[in-house]
């Protein structure tokens, strides 16, 4: 079929000949888990998934995506990720006819009917379209499992490289300077375009950049200053066994949830929107004055959200009775509410770990890192530090989890109504007034997931060699870790930060000290004349 229909088949034959003629040194890539780095960013993956490792960070990446083809006559040649055959050459099973991938001149279908500002399809829009399954199109790609995930993360790295390349290309021609400094330079007779100012770094509009994290951190601090300390923190984790996901997967037999990160992302977004509607507009815990959340992946294969709620004064939980009404940390009575009992057992039971299971992932040095099992207590109490100890009565109520007997000491705090409605892990807790802001804010500015890797030479059997020949490839590489689940979330342009009410950033300044942006080739006197009496947002 390839010989008959795919024009790129000859390139695959040439690659085969190259492998047959050359002596290859097998290598393997190893992820390194170390406490010398930040465990929140450099933790090892806990799920089996396809991910991209991008060397460096989003703030200091340099150079091009290094994809080389070898021509019989013209030798080695680097090709761009914008080439129409770029993906077809890498994924022949996804492009069996060698058809074109993304091009820079694809027009929007409705360009003639609307006054659309952008008339050409962007790279992100193209791949967001291709990621999704359509009724009258071939479903081959969605039956290829890990290869489909590899295509998705590869496409995302192409989009990221294109965005970074635009910033690299344009920031060399754009400068910024304070107005009075620009006026002083002109008064001195210096009108050389590139003689003043500083280069513009990766902007805050670039998701994941240091400026993006800092700006969101400042926004959240301002919400906290205006609304007071948060009252409730909710952790909401995607459940891959949701009925909506399973029904969609049944369209193509043999699919598993991990094979379709696009469906995982879209269903979780729908559920998250409904949850935020319950918590804010419908006032499930009371009138919500403010709410924020951040989306994380943490190399677990599934998205999850950390949500902070700020309630009005009348609805704040102040007494232990208020806390018990909203939050429970016990097994429900199976005779009264069988659905709640099954939901708690499935979604809100920790481990089990400790003496009954020393092999649990949470165990370290013989102790649970999450401090389970918790001690029994007949009443909810709030310590001097503001942290509550929830009621966990030793009432003899038990259940079987993974072949082990668990009781109330293993139950993660939850709200029964939200748990039964959403059928997922929803951890609901009262905020520690002194420390909870930092708990969530650290996720606002900790940066993207990272991985520490090394490339090791191996023998034919795949085992590391005792005496490596090439020393240079033993160096540790600091990489950004991008999973397929995060790729789909970002490609569909779902927000990674949410703030209610929205924060308007007011750039205030002293007189004649506002920032002026100009290009390298513009004469300074012309720039100063252009600015003139123009008002800034502040003035």
Strand order of the largest sheet: 16-7-9-8-19
- Structural class per helix/strand content? alpha+beta
Rounded to an integer in angstroms, the radius of gyration calculated over CA atoms is 28 Å
- Helix amount: 25-40%
Poorly predicted parts: 58-63, 466-475
Shape call: globular
Please provide the count of β strands. Answer: 20
Q: Specify the biggest β-sheet.
A: 5 strands, antiparallel
How many helices?
Answer: 16
Rounded mean pLDDT score: 78
Quote the distance from N terminus to C terminus: 68 Å
Estimate the strand proportion: 15-25%
Describe this structure as you would to a colleague.
α8 runs antiparallel to α14 (about 435-445) and α12 (about 340-345) packs across α13 (about 415-420). This protein starts with a helix and ends in an 8-residue tail after the last helix. Mean pLDDT is about 80; it is low at about 60-65 and about 465-475. A hairpin with a 2-residue loop joins β14 and β15. It has helices at about 1-5, 10-20, 40, 85-90, 125-130, 145-170, 180-185, 210-225, 245-250, 260-280, 320-325, 340-345, 415-420, 435-445, 485-490, 525-530; strands spanning about 25-30, 50-55, 70, 75-80, 175-180, 200, 230-235, 290-295, 305-310, 365, 365-370, 380, 390, 400, 405, 425-430, 450-455, 475-485, 495-500, 515-520. The chain is α+β, with helices and mostly antiparallel strands. Helices cover about 30% and strands about 15% of the residues. The strands form 7 sheets. It has a 5-stranded antiparallel β-sheet with strand order 16-7-9-8-19, sandwiched between helices. Strands 1-17-18-2 form a 4-stranded antiparallel β-sheet.
